[in-house]
Amino acid sequence: MNPHILRRFIIFCAIATVVMFSLWAVIDYFTASLPGDYEVRQGDILLTDKKYDLALERFDAALKVSPDHRGALMGRAITFLQSGRHDDAEAEFTYLIDYLTKTLGADDPTGHGVLAGAYANRGILYDRSNRPEKALADYKQALRIDAGAVEGPGLAHRIIYGNSRPATVRDRAMYLEQQLALPESERLLRVPELDERQRTYKP
């Protein structure tokens, strides 16, 4: 066989293989998704960019096609929290916690991660609104449900977002427990520069 033809044939096969695998990956990505997942991914991107109104629109769109979509409920709650709408955030986190508590199966590790994240995030809300006892209770519950889901961010997240020493749920729970054991006049429950290192959790 002509070596030039063989070479072109091999290159063509290699390109065709790459294209087919890429096409398969894209199709699988969208067909494997549940209703509402695509809208939630869009909302997550907008939330990361602090485009809160647009993020809420996407999370609401997800809930229209999939009522009680837990990713959308969590997204709405975090959006409310980060945009300062604390009453709305508390209501949304509480609804999500109640919903998952009633419907979660024992064989749903992702769901348990979401439930732990909801408790952790509501704890952050209570922390920021000066309700340390409630914050501590939620942090402890998050750790009981799934400690791994509310660990601090990995190395990649720290590099991307420049937060080399984020406060974890466990760290904050231990700190609050120590402070609440002190006489009220000696407590230091808020350290703004440290508190800002807390991150919300969205498994």
Task: Give descriptors for this structure.
single chain; 203 residues; mainly alpha; Serine Threonine Protein Phosphatase 5, Tetratricopeptide repeat
Describe the structure.
There is one protein chain. This protein is an all-alpha fold. The chain has a single domain (33-195), classed as Tetratricopeptide repeat domain (Serine Threonine Protein Phosphatase 5, Tetratricopeptide repeat). It has helices spanning 3-31, 37-48, 52-65, 70-82, 86-103, 109-128, 132-146, 155-161, 169-180, 192-195. The longest helix has 29 residues, at 3-31. The radius of gyration is 22 Å and the shape is elongated. The termini are far apart. The model is unreliable at 25-32 and 155-161 (pLDDT under 50).
- Unreliable spans are 25-32, 155-161
General form: elongated
Number of strands: 0
CATH topology: Serine Threonine Protein Phosphatase 5, Tetratricopeptide repeat
Element-by-element helix/strand order: HHHHHHHHHH
Name of the CATH architecture:
Alpha Horseshoe
- Can you give the helix content as a percent range? over 70%
Q: Estimate the strand proportion.
A: under 5%
Mean pLDDT: 84
Distance between the termini: 56 Å
Structure annotation, total helices = 10
Radius of gyration: 22 Å
Q: What does the largest sheet look like?
A: none
How many domains, as an integer? 1
For this structure, what is the CATH class? Answer: Mainly Alpha
